[in-house]
Structures are given as C-alpha cells and as structure tokens.
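Appendix B.2, paired examples.
Example (i):
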Amino acid sequence: MNIAIIGTGYVGLVSGACFAEMGVNVTCIDINKQKISNLNNGIIPIYEPGLEEMVLRNQKAGRLKFTHDLGSCISEVEIIFNAVGTPPDEDGSADLKFVYDAAQTVGKLINHYVLFVTKSTVPVGTALQVKSIIRNELKKRKLEIPFDVASNPEFLKEGNAIDDFMSPDRVVVGVESEKAKELFTRLYRPFLLNNFRVIFMDIASAEMTKYAANAMLATRISFMNDIANLCERVGADVNMVRKGIGSDVRIGSKFLYPGCGYGGSCFPKDVKAIIKTASTYGYEMKVLKSVETVNEKQKTILFEKVKDHFAGNLAGKTIALWGLAFKPETDDMREAPSLALISLLLQSKCTVKVYDPIAMNECKRVVGDTVTYCTDMYDAVLDADAVLLVTEWKEFRVPSWLVVKNAMKFPIIIDGRNIYDRNELINNGFIHISIGSKA
C-alpha cells in the first residue's frame, strides 16, 4: 500500500515512520525544503525515543521517503494524510490555514481516486470545508475525479509516541463511505490482527473525540491541582487523597498527579479551541474555562512557594531549575510551566540556572541568554539558594543528596512533581516543599 503524509512535524513524522515499520510505503511531504534535506540526510528535527532509529531503518529499506513535492508521488498513493500544524489563533481558535492549503494542493494535483484524511487536530466541521475546497479545485480543472475525506485523529503521548502508535489503546476513524472504510481496514489490518480496537464512526464524532479526550485529561489534571491547593490549606496530604480516590474503579489513578501545571502542544491549544468552538455555536464551556484558569494559576505555584519561603525577598537569589520540557522524554517547551517560572524569577531579579537532559537547545531558542545553562544537575545547584524540580526526568529521581547539599547555599528543594520522599530529604538536612501538603 502506498500513502503520503503532508507535514513532517511531530504527528506526521511519527506516523510516517510507524506506518513504514508496518510495511506500508510512505512518502512524507513538507514545504520546508531545509527540513526535507535534513531528513534525507538522517537529521531528525524532533526528539522522541526510538524515532531516529526507526526513520533511518525504514529509509534504508526504501519504505520511507521525504520530498517537498506532493506531485512526485500523487499518481501512486491511495491515501493522503494531512498532518500539518493547527496552531492557536489570537482568539483561541485553531488556525486552519495549513490544513486548507494542503486540501487546495490535493485538489490541484489528484488524477485518480484518493482518500484524503485529516490527522491534525481540527474543530468539528473541518472535513466539510476540506471537501468543499477539493471540489472547488477540481471544478476549476473541469474534472470529476472521485475522492473521499475522513478523520483519523492521533492520540500520541510525547515521549511514548512510538509505543502509542504501534500498540494503541484505540484507533478512531471517521468515514462517510464504505470505500473509505475498506481502505482504512486494509491500512490498519496489522492492528486488527493484534486485536487492537479500530473504532469506526461518523467524521464529526471523530473530530470531536480528539478534543473531548484532551479536554478530559486536562480537566483531571486541573481538578487534582485544585484539590492539592486545598489540601495545603486544610492540612491534608494530597498524595493520600490521590490514592484514596484513584482506588475507585469509576475514577482510576491516571492523570491524578498534582504538580505545577500542564503544558505542551496539545492540552493548552485544544482546551482553548473547544471553548472557542462552543462559543461559535452559542454555548459556554464553563468547566473547561475553569480548567484553563486553574492551570494558568498553577504554573506560578513554584514561584509563589519559593517567594513565600524567602518572605518575598528574591532579589539576588540564585535559583536552580531541574527540568525545562513540559514533560519527560521530550524537548518540547511549548506552554511549559518552566517558561512562566523563568519569567517570574527574572522579573524578581533572580539569577536562574537551568538543566534539562534534552531541552537545553530548545530553551536557548526560546529564552536566549537570560538564564545560565548548566552541564548537569549538580552544576545547576552549585551556589543555589533553592532547587525547583519542574520536570520529573528519571535522572532527577535519585540524586546524591550529600553532593547536592554541599553544593548549595541553602538546602531547599521545592518539589514541583511530588517525586521525593519528604522524610528522606529531612533526614539529609533539607527543607522539602511539595505540592498539596504542609511543609
């Protein structure tokens, strides 16, 4: 089977590599010629565990190709996936310019039946607009070429995307014809053979499923952060509360970990987009508005804790940050809590020292030389007045506390992800401040 994927960002590149791994012939297209040149030379634009090896392996096997010209493969493909970016617009809605541009290009080039699939996260009703754009282009060409549109949203977690694609919880497919359903069934046959769930539905429901899933996960995070903040005030321990409610099978334990807020390319953008979509239809998403408000406030929680500890006097203090990416196993800093934290610390005239195993270059790109970049976690704590754990990378879990203590001015750990044992830290001479429990 021959397919094309438009867009070599996170979703497009991971999807292309994984489809190729399953034996599909994949051509990935991107208008960024430098990115395509880099990919053809084995230079991967994003960090994702296992991705580089998979891309190189399938390139060598001839199943994965990269080009900036969709026309070079249009005659051979049966399915075209649209995996371009949908960044938030100024009003919070999804910017669909690149989605529509890709549809226009397809309408200008197709010369036989194709299934055009939107894999990008898009508002309900986008498929109808895409279909109209392709039809208009065919009309300009005075051609009547059959085609179908479909929705196949991705549910990939950054840092675990390869496993998520190859062993999915579910594959959601929105179609409106039997022919489209048959093509998807062929494409996803390896997953069906392994008894993974491929759920077929109408296109509008598939488009909504993606937003609803991310909105629910964001809601659980903000709910637990709200509970954590209340726990601190009433003297409860949120870690005990989390275990208590997570043992209820109706609730479960996933996404109930309090911390310093969610970030990344999906949750913030998708919550804003679904709120905007509802507004367009005259409906107010009151719960999700609160989810967003809680999360924005939570991104300041570590700053508030370190400020309170020093009685509001942060000027001249040296603060170390362990972790910059919005989550472990990625270099993605989009909407990362670390960015809000860095900004507040700099405004308070702190010296900020940072270390992240992967995201240092991305941090340099985003904040420049406003912070001090360190060679490792121990370099970061040298002469620090406090250490703030922002991202729970594995290498931060069991540090040498003696080395850390001897390197710091003051032995203060502010645990933004609740990964440390308080008694252990106290026994090692530290002040330990966490989320959702009294110090």
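Example (ii):
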Amino acid sequence: MAQQPKAIIFDLGGVLIDWNPRYLYRKLLNTDDEIESFLRDVCTSDWNEQQAAGRPLEEGT
C-alpha cells in the first residue's frame, strides 16, 4: 500500500529549486534575442497561467 505524503512543500520563491524557462530555451533557440521574443510573443506569462489553470493544450496551441 502506498504511503500518503506527510508534507507538501511550496517553493514559490525559487529557494529550493532554481527554475527558469530560459534554461530550456537556451537549448532550443540560438540567441538570447530569440528566447526573449519567444517568451514575449508566444509563451507569455498569461498563456502559461491559463495552461496551468487547466486549459487544454489543444486550445492553447
């Protein structure tokens, strides 16, 4: 039988895990300008929030 978690940790300030989408996009795009353009025009914060809230990927795409 699987154990139930005893604690849940929310790392809202990025203290435990240093995550930035630029880490991934540096591997996929050629320049910092391309990364910034992609984040500004395609994968915006608003788009990401809607996806995180449950919007279907097909709709977001």
